[in-house]
Amino acid sequence: MGRVDRASRVIEAPAETVYRALLDREALEAWLPPEGMRGRIERWDPRPGGGFRMVLTYLDAADSPGKTSEATDVVDVGFADLAPPERVVQTAEFHADDPAYAGTMTMTWDLAAAGDRTEVTVTATGVPPGIDQAAHEEGIASSLANLAAYLGAAG
């Protein structure tokens, strides 16, 4: 089956609230960038077949050089499937001169409701081989922690 990167977290919010945060431009800019990065969405079309472009900027480029430029990673994300409030499937195409970092990965966000809480599991397949698996899973976990904090502050 190949490489699968995965991370999960229980979020103290109902599945509908979590689902909305996966499809809200301002919310994504706030919580999606992992620790050590900030993000800016340049294009936004939240529908099946639509998507967005996010520019991720490293806060310390000396420690973590970018894949698109010295300090940035650029990714075009497509919404492959939207199944409210249980799942969002995205395709993420990375822009990089180094083929080890370029390519399209699929990220599936599964939301399992448990009353007023939601277990969110992110599964990534087709991850470009230059992306270290442990670092990628740590980045996904960081984004999930940001999502939990964002929804805690929003609630």
TrEMBL record:
InterPro entries, alphabetized: ASHA1/2-like_C, START-like_dom_sf
Pfam families: AHSA1 (PF08327)
Superkingdom per UniProt: Bacteria
Domain Activator of Hsp90 ATPase homologue 1/2-like C-terminal, residue spans: 13-152
CDD domains, per the entry: SRPBCC_CalC_Aha1-like_2
SUPFAM superfamilies, per the entry: Bet v1-like
Gene3D superfamilies in the cross-refs: 3.30.530.20
Membership in a protein family: Belongs to the AHA1 family.
Protein name in the entry: Uncharacterized conserved protein YndB, AHSA1/START domain
Upper lineage: Bacteria, Bacillati, Actinomycetota, Actinomycetes, Micromonosporales
